[in-house]
User: Fold this.
Amino acid sequence: MNGLGKVAVGVLLVLLAACQDKAAIKTVHDGNALKMGMFVDGKLSGLGLVTSETNQIESMGSWKAGTIDGLGMRTNKIYTDIGEFTNGAMNGKGIKKSRSGDVYLGNFVADNYQGKGVLYYSDGRTYSGTFNNNAPDGRGIMQYSNGNVYMGQFKNGIAEGDGVLLLPNGKRIVGKFAHDEASVTAKYYDHW
Assistant:
């Protein structure tokens, strides 16, 4: 277990000790994972954590009937989630960091980016605005790694609708956008 994992286990043990009167505190190894925390009817309920066979923390936080529920953290080979959970899914405010380097901070519904948030892409882009089903959708601002900045409407992750594209050379394009490109009716200006 790495240093951060040891600190997390230590903090959890202190919290568990403070909550001894609410449930039985124990450690269970089920052949695949080590579960430590408060158990009710044989399932994690209250504060607890689950580690993998290699003693890496997979999930920790508040549990209800064996499912992470409340504030917590969950990690696997693809991502790490920290935030609010309901019935094992991210629901509410949280952070998701993918192993590819993308980082999302914002609102979740059923593990999906939904509502307002900010997404830092591993390729250098940053999007701030509304999301629907994990994609920019609605009003927002996309800052591209080449210096371009688009402010306007998005649909399914692409510029779609009214918007303004600011170019690093000081020019701007104002009007309708479709499929990430300005329409022929868009107006070009030599300054912002």
The longest strand covers residues 89-98. Residues 102 and 121 are 5 Å apart (CA to CA).
